[in-house]
Structure formats: C-alpha cells, structure tokens
Amino acid sequence: MTVLLVANDGGHIMQLHTLRPRLDVEDVVWVTPRTPQTESLLAGEVVHWTEPCPPRDPAAVMHNAARCRVLFEQYAVTLVVSTGAALALAVLPQARMRNIETVYIESATRYDAPSLSGRMLAMMPGVRTFSQSTALHTRRWTYLASPWELYESVQQAPRPVSRMVVSLGTQEGYGFRRLVERLVPLVPAGTEVLWQTGATDVSGLGIDARPSVPSAEMAAAIAEADVVVAHAGTGIALMALENGTFPVLVPRRARHGEHVDDHQLTIALELSLRDLCVSRDADSLKLSDLEHAAARRVVKSATASVLDLVPRPRRTVAGPVPAPVG
Questions:
Q1: Is residue 70 a part of any domain in this protein?
Q2: Quick one: how far is CA 147 from the chain centroid?
Q3: What phi and psi values does residue 277 have, to the nearest 5 degrees?
Q4: 164 and 117 in one domain?
Q5: Last residue of a domain, one of 94, 124, 143
Q6: Residues ≥6 apart with Cβ < 8 Å to 74
Q7: Using the 8-state DSSP alphabet, how is residue 245 labeled?
Q8: Same-domain status, 129 and 39
Q9: 41 CA to centre of own chain
Q10: pLDDT value for 312
C-alpha cells in the first residue's frame, strides 16, 4: 500500500519533508520537480520526477497530470498527501477520481487565507483540507499543526561571526539585491560566507555567489555557521531551525519587486514572536543583528505527536458471548 507525497520544490517540499515523520507512513513515493534541492533532499528515496509546475500555469498542470497518471497504475496507492502548490492540482484530483484518500495541507505561508490551489481543492468533494495556522481554521479548513511548534531558542555565550550562510532562495524572476547590497559591508573581515543568491544580480558586489546549492550541502553549511541570513521563506527557515541555527530573516517586499506579495512579512513576524529568529527589513539590517543571532541556538522537541490525516478504523471490542437460548 503506497502513499504519494506531492509537493513543488522550495518551501513546499521542505515543509512536507519535515512533516513526514509525523504522518506515520512507510511505503512512500515522492512526487516533485527535479532540482538540485530535491535531488539532494530526497537522496535514497523513491521519487517520481515531474516537470516544473509554476503558479497559475494551467498548461504545466495538465502536462504534469499526464505524467503522473502512471503512478496509479504502477502502485497500489491508498493515500495522497500534498503541501502544494500547483503540482497538487495535477495529482490530487486523479486520486479522488479513483476514490483514494486525499489530503491537502496548506502552506505555512498562508496565514489566514488559502492559496488559489487550496481554494480549488477545498471545493472538490472528498479532499481533506488542513492548515498550519490557527488563523486559518474555518468550515473548510481544519488546523493541523504549526511547523514552528517543535522548536525553541536558547541563549549561548556570545561568539565572533566567522562563518555565515546567506540564502535568497531560487525562485525565478525575483531578485533580492537590496539585501545583498546592505549585507556585504556588514560582514566582518575574514568571515567565510556561502552566498546562495538565486536569480539576484550580484554583479559588481565583489562576492563569490552561487545560484543554487544542493540541500545536503546547504544543511551542512548551516549546521556549522555562526549566522544564517535569509529571505523569509518557509523552506530556508525550516532548514535553519532543523540545524540548530537562530536565523536572521529578511522579508522580500512586493513594492520593491522582490515577490508577488508580502506573505514573507507574516512568516518573519510569526517566527519573531515565537523567539525563533531576528526579523529585519533589508534597509535596517545591522551588524548587531548578526551578533545577536550568533548568541542563540535552536533546539527541537523530541516528542512530536503523530498527525491524524484520515479517520482511523474503529476497533471492534469483543464482548461476552451470549448464552445459548433453551
């Protein structure tokens, strides 16, 4: 009996990968686009690679739906779980057509309103819809768990900043040069920095930048870093917390053309209120923010509960055998 775990790359796959130990599933096939991140993150797993599935691209949804149809012929699928986004529209409806249990978990970036993919799937009969925010708990959406509830920060002795990781994500079409320009002069002399800059133009800034970094390499670098500075995406935030680092999160802003909307403000605020990050606008970032983050670490709870996505079968309790009549 096979469970399909479906997610776009980036923060979506990172959320599902972090949730996976709490889903109590074993025979798993991952369904995701092939990228350096997903290849590294899912090394050793069974994966069905799809084509990229950008937001609001019906052609990509239809193309991936055709590519994923074979999954229901190759495997005895009993459950499909997705954390979005558009790729869920290519797979989950096919599962429901076959009367397979289907679950959509809205991204943690969607604090009080679902995504377009979420709204469409919530209208489909039989799709169970969960949120990762208590603010999104409505007739159609049931609060499941927050990805941030497993972590807490602790104070440690101040230390110099000698190793840094800077991650701007890999989403195409949106640069974040404003952060890099602010950060370059703040980096202490002699500091070793891994710059992962995605689509950002960093020409003339004098840094050795890489557009993307495999997930395993990024996680190892974060675990050894004194400071992580990143855009406020759920994927990199989760990776920082998973590896014990108290990150400095800098939200991209729509008014500067850095993202489609300002949902990263919500993510950074949520983690800041939980004392799990330093949240700063790019224009107000200071060296003291880096030093403050270096003096904290993050620990993870070892007692995460299993999440019930579908109703468990009722157990039949044997009662006394009635005495024969006559």
A1: yes
A2: 9
A3: -165, 165
A4: no
A5: 143
A6: none
A7: B
A8: yes
A9: 12
A10: 57
Residue 155 β-bridge partners = 296
How far apart CA 45 and CA 30 sit, in angstroms, is 8
CB distance 176 to 200 below 8 Å? yes
Residues 221 and 259 reside in one and the same domain: yes
Q: Which amino acid is at 316?
A: T
Token pair of 204 as six digits: 């003339």
Tokens matching residue 205: 């800034």
Concatenating the DSSP letter of every residue in 247-260 gives -EEE---GGGTSSS
Contact residues for 93 (Cβ-Cβ < 8 A; gap 6+)? 65, 121, 124
Amino acid 169: pLDDT: 87
β-strand partners of 245: 297
Distances (CA, A) of 278 to 228, 245, 296: 10, 11, 10
For residue 251, the tally of other CB atoms under 10 A from its CB is 24
Residues lower than pLDDT 70 in the chain: 312-326
Number of domains in the chain: 2
Q: What is the pTM of this model?
A: 0.85
Q: What is the pLDDT of residue 316?
A: 38
Q: Which residues contact 108 (CB under 8 A, 6 or more apart)?
A: 11, 15, 132, 133, 146, 147, 148, 234, 267
What are the backbone angles phi and psi of residue 55, rounded to the nearest 5°?
Answer: -60, 145
Per-residue tokens: 215: 């997930």
Range of the domain at 197: 151-300
Peptide bond into 230 cis (omega under 30): no
Q: What is the pLDDT, as a whole number, of residue 304?
A: 77
